[in-house]
Amino acid sequence: MNKLSEIVETIKKYDRIIVLRHQNPDPDALGSQTGLATAIKQAFPNKKVLLGGGNAEGLKWLSTMDEVTGEDYEGSLVIVCDTANTPRIDDERFNSGAYLVKIDHHPNDDAYGDQLFVDTEASSSSEIIADLISQNAEFKLTKEVAYYLYAGIVGDTGRFLYPSTTQHTMNVSGELMATGINFAGINQNMNEITLQQAKLQGELFNRLKIDESGAAMAVIDEDLMTKLGITREQANSVVSTPGRLAEVHSWVEAVQKDDGTFRIHLRSQGPVINELAKEHTGGGHPLASGANAKDLAEVDQIFNELIELVKDFYQKGE
Question: What sequence ranges are listed for the domain DDH (predicted)?
Answer without folding.
Answer: 16-153
